[in-house]
């Protein structure tokens, strides 16, 4: 048995007001990579006596898989997760995103852009996440062109923040990304705007999520400041990569975790997060009773990726589910 652990030096500040969240996109069932983020965000919130929320980020409707949102929620329940408030769906929040965009536009912080992705790829130089927008439409639309998107004017200078896992981070959004899209060509609001508006609306104070979003954080901090929102704390857990170095969600190994047998996947996620191994044969409810007092965010590897410890067909995985499968 494990005795009481020492205080964690990376514990979230202001624990009494801690509000965390898990925000999956319903593009398929929950896989081990998503479970890793859910376990970390849930354990950190509960260890800090905080609130934990679930938000379904279904704003990217073309990529949404019918029935995936309900399947994700049922899987979370089967794994013993308990959220404290009603689930928020981004698809029902478009008015809030539109209002935020109007607020930015009224202050001259956005502008319409006619450029296609292909044009940006040809004209922009390479950045850490793709071509950097070269500012083609910053001073007005080219003659004869119509607006396709709305972009934020990014200022020069670096944004600095302290990640509770990855350490000090610094990025010039203007140099690394350029003026980025807030309303897409298909009319949908972009993820960066939606996540900032929703985190503020839900009073999120600590964001624990996958390291694939580490480079997005400066853009979100920029938007938070522009909209007058408080900045939450951030902690980015390592991504799980397959043997070919691909993110698990894009890998053939990304079979869903099995809600009928949660223990193996919970133990695998817990181990990948660097935590002490739990006693054998814990039911999910008993697992959390044991795990929350043991949680130490400081034990998570300060790496942006880790190798997948299992392959497709392992006992903690199952074939993709029909959304109606219990």
Describe this structure in words.
The protein has 9 helices and 14 strands. It is elongated. Helix content is 29%, strand content 16%. The two termini are 34 Å apart. It has a 3-stranded parallel sheet, with helices on one face. It has helices at residues 32-47, 68-78, 94-106, 117-123, 173-176, 191-201, 217-227, 262-272, 284-294, and strands spanning 19-22, 51-56, 88-89, 110-113, 126-127, 130-131, 149-152, 159-163, 167-171, 181-183, 206-210, 233-237, 239-241, 305-307. Helix 6 (191-201) crosses helix 7 (217-227). By secondary structure, the protein is an alpha/beta fold. It has 2 domains: 15-90 and 202-307, Rossmann fold, CATH 3.40.50.620; 95-192, 3-Layer(aba) Sandwich (Rossmann fold), CATH 3.40.50.620. The longest helix has 16 residues, at 32-47. Helix 7 (217-227) links the parallel strand 11 (206-210) and strand 12.
């Amino acid at each position: 048995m494990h005795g009481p652990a020492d205080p964690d030096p990376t514990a979230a500040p202001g624990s009494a007001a801690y509000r965390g969240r898990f925000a999956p996109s319903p593009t398929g069932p929950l896989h081990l990579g998503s479970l890793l983020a859910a376990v970390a965000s849930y354990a950190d919130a509960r260890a800090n006596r905080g609130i934990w929320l679930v938000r379904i980020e279904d704003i990217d409707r073309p990529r949404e898989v019918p029935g995936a949102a309900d399947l994700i929620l049922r899987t979370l329940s089967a794994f013993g997760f308990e959220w404290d408030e009603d689930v928020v769906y981004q698809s029902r929040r478009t008015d809030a995103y539109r209002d935020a965009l109007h607020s930015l536009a009224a202050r001259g912080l956005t502008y319409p852009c006619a450029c296609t992705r292909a044009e940006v790829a040809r004209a922009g130089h390479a950045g850490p996440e793709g071509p950097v927008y070269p500012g083609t439409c910053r001073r007005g639309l080219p003659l004869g062109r119509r607006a396709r998107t709305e972009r934020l004017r990014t200022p020069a200078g670096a944004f600095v923040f302290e990640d509770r896992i990855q350490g000090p981070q610094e990025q010039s959004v203007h140099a690394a990304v350029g003026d980025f899209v807030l309303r897409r060509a298909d009319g949908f609001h972009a993820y960066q705007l939606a996540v900032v508006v929703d985190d503020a609306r839900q009073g999120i104070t600590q964001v624990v999520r996958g390291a694939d979003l580490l480079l997005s954080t400066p853009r979100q901090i920029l938007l938070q400041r522009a909209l007058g929102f408080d900045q939450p704390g951030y902690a980015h857990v390592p991504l799980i990569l397959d043997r070919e170095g691909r993110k698990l969600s894009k890998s053939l190994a990304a079979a869903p975790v099995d809600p009928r047998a949660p223990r193996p996947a919970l133990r695998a996620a817990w181990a990948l997060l660097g935590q002490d191994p739990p006693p054998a044969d814990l039911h999910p409810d008993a697992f959390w009773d044991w795990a929350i007092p043991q949680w130490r965010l400081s034990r998570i590897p300060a790496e942006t990726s880790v190798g997948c410890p299992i392959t497709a067909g392992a006992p903690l995985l199952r074939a993709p589910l029909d959304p109606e499968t219990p």
